[in-house]
Write a sequence for this structure.
């Protein structure tokens, strides 16, 4: 929830900054004003910082989802066969000359 709120807040800051820059540029274009002020530099700085924070919040969400969803499954895929080694579920079938894994206890054909 906090990660989504972070993304929403940075999106709101970025959108309001872009709207402010657009309105400022439109007003200066309509009045034919061609100077830059210190507030223009500040708006550009806020735009770059908020865009970087916006992308960073998406990166943070992706890392969180990786560790919550993918990483435990990845560990399970490696640890589950190790448990089969120690419980004796892998049996050598002499007739077919292969190792068989019996997940459920049934008679092989």
């Amino acid at each position: 929830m906090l990660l989504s709120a972070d993304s929403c807040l940075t999106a709101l800051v970025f959108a309001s900054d872009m709207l402010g820059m657009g309105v400022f540029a439109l007003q200066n274009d309509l009045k034919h004003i061609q100077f830059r002020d210190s507030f223009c530099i500040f708006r550009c700085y806020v735009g770059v910082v908020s865009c970087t924070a916006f992308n960073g919040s998406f990166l943070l969400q992706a890392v969180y989802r990786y560790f919550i969803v993918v990483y435990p499954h990845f560990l399970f895929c490696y640890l589950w066969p190790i448990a089969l080694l120690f419980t004796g579920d892998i049996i050598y079938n002499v007739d077919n000359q292969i190792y068989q894994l019996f997940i459920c206890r049934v008679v092989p054909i």
